[in-house]
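ARCHIVE CARD
CATEGORY: sequence design from structure
SOURCE FIELD: tokenized fold
FIELD CONTENT:
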């Protein structure tokens, strides 16, 4: 005698891992090669026309991001210089693939005339409850004779972040990186992801000359010659994807499972029902939108709903997964072999296009748990 239980799950997602917006700035558009009106051009340095401050724009729509970018210069002798120089960059590099399709990489904000200079790119108006990506690069294009001219990039004022600069760039610390900007033909970028600003909604990207080899800086870098910037990108990352867990006790005859967030759909002789219910999120009790239903197909008799004392290895999967949540006692069949078949039917909604994924069969058990991980895992 063989019985089959079928659970049908239909889950709709309305979320993707795509960035919510990207904003680009060309800080040295002296030759006018960047002509997209959605790309801002704040700049600084001798001969620069300004402005030094502007609200960044969403690249796709041109709508304001609400984030203000501002340059501030700290000089020792003289000041940084705004210029435009022809460059050659590896087309497969981070600089070329990230910035190349959007703006013109030629031009730079050049070095000061003595040690001690730095330029701050101040980003304000960031949402302290969200995370961002920043990337920046510069390239003088001076050939090997300029290779010693180095920029030190440092992220200041963030509560959390992840270092993500180009592989091969000289990592000074989690918050700082150095690479040659006099001859950046390899197209390195300084980048951090997962940037969480503090309550003031402000971070600073500080560029200056090398901190020196003795302090962990790039070996062979010039003491003060470097480039304060060229182009940068700010990206609002998608909000954290939230998963949920839903549990069902299919044989709670003894009432051992008391958590109101655990459903108790059941089937079989003496079972009290219901055979169908909407699963609940374990943590909050909110509806998952997923309906679970038992349907019985039998040859002789039917499955039997009962409660039996059990002993389970406390280190087993059953004990560690279900034990902290519900009562494992009870079964949905006695004296028979029961095959459980779970059929998962998924639809992922991406940009309004429903994409079905294949059904996934797996073993059914009297205690059921549906775990939806965060999108992207």
């Amino acid at each position: 005698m063989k019985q089959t239980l079928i659970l049908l799950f239909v889950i709709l997602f309305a979320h993707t891992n795509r960035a919510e917006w990207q904003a680009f700035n060309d800080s040295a558009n002296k030759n006018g090669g960047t002509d997209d009106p959605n790309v801002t051009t704040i700049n600084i340095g001798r001969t620069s026309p300004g402005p030094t401050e502007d609200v960044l724009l969403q690249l796709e729509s041109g709508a304001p991001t609400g984030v203000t970018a501002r340059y501030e210069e700290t000089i020792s002798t003289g000041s940084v210089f705004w210029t435009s120089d022809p460059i050659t960059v590896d087309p497969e590099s981070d600089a070329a693939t990230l910035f190349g399709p959007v703006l013109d990489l030629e031009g730079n904000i050049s070095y000061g005339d003595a040690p001690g200079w730095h330029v701050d790119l101040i980003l304000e108006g960031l949402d302290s409850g969200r995370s961002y990506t920043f990337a920046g690069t510069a390239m003088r294009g001076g050939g090997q004779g300029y290779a010693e001219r180095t920029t030190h990039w440092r992220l200041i004022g963030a509560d959390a972040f992840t270092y993500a600069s180009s592989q091969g760039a000289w990592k000074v610390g989690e918050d700082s990186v150095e690479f040659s900007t006099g001859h950046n033909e390899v197209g390195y970028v300084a980048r951090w992801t997962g940037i969480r600003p503090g309550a003031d909604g402000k971070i600073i990207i500080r560029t200056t000359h090398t901190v020196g080899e003795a302090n962990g800086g790039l070996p062979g870098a010039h003491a003060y010659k470097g480039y304060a910037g060229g182009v940068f990108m700010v990206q609002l990352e998608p909000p954290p994807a939230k998963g949920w867990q839903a549990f069902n006790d299919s044989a709670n005859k003894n009432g051992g499972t008391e958590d109101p967030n655990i459903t108790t759909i059941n089937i079989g002789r003496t079972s009290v029902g219901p055979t169908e219910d909407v699963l609940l999120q374990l943590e909050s009790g909110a509806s998952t939108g997923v309906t679970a239903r038992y349907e019985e197909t039998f040859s002789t008799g039917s499955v039997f709903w009962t409660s039996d004392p059990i002993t389970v290895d406390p280190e087993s999967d059953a004990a560690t997964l279900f034990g902290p949540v519900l009562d494992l006692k009870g079964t949905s069949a006695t004296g028979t072999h029961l095959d459980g078949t779970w059929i998962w039917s998924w639809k992922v909604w991406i940009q309004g296009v429903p994409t079905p994924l294949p059904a996934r069969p797996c073993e059914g058990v009297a205690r059921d748990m549906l775990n939806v991980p965060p999108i992207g895992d």
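CARD ANNOTATION: The chain is about 5% helix and 35% strand. The longest helix spans residues 94-99.
SHELF: design records, drawer C
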